[in-house]
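Suppose you are handed a protein chain with no further information: no name, no annotation, nothing but its sequence. What can you learn? This example shows the usual starting point.
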Amino acid sequence: MDTSDPEIEFDPQGVCNHCREFDEVTRLRWFPNEAGMSQLRGIVDRIKRDGNGAAYDCILGLSGGVDSSYLAVRVREWGLRPLVVHVDAGWNSELAVANIEKVVKHCNFDLHTHVVDWEEMRDLHIAYLRAGVANQDVPQDHVFFSSLYHFATRNKIRYILSGGNIATEGIFPKSWHGSAMDAINLKAIHGRFGERPLKTYSTISFFEHYLWYPFVKKMRTVRPLNYMPYEKAAAMAELERSIGWRAYGRKHGESLFTKLFQNHYLPTKFGYDKRRPHLASLVVSGQMTRQEALAELDVPLYDPQELAIDIAYFCKKLRITPAQFNEFMIAPPHHHTEFPTWEGRYRVLKRLQRGVEMFTGRRISVYS
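A reasonable first move is to predict its three-dimensional structure. Written in structure tokens, the prediction is:
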């Protein structure tokens, strides 16, 4: 990490706050050892017990990327019965579709694909481009997670399994953008810059996310990869060998939108190279040396010819001209907090949580 994170701090030894937080806080929630496997066995047994007699005992979001694909294979070995959900927001690469088919066929899981209304999705994408904020991937991410919750409640499933993990995602600068689940921010941006109502686009409110689902519906998001040794390179090699899964070359390359967003929009408009936190996560989790990570950063983000092809596809897909795309790129950048957010409500909720914990002497740990 570098000063593209405006909140970065270095101690007298040159160690940044991200590394300190990983060692002092994040590492306490990471169990890549036998103790973690023991905890995981207990979690799997509880999911099976709570789902006994139901058609499915958990729900698993599958993007075709390495994390969710590897988790699906492990879930099959554990004997769980997931409803596998894929949310198609219109940007799937052919390779992503092929990988999803291979995983589902290998595991013999039921797959439900939710196709997001493209006209609504397009309108939301353009609204975010007009807003000029960094977190352009919110329209995809929000509908992905909200769809999982809605599918889970409709099918009376309490457990959502996520491929998110500390080993490859343990570091991220909070200053870069806000929560993808902030429906207040999403609706504010769309309300100002959108042109059509979001009639079918699925969202989750602050009340649902923090109170209704965890306390009333007793739902839990579980990240099993945090309870086992998980190395990205080894996981990809196993998937390639066992089921013919193929790597994308870049993290989140399964989405053509995310590829252009992370490798061109963010570094060009904001100076954010998302390889930095990704590689930093691999360094602090022991999967890569700092020297190897710095060498990776020397590799160009985009081949010029490939970039031209991807921009052309992006413009055609969104029905905008190359000139309009360039206008979005050179327009002044804006921060998501220039629009209403749920961050104030979140701070109030955290104060209430701390008060309840002090009064009861018990830690509230229902959140993912």
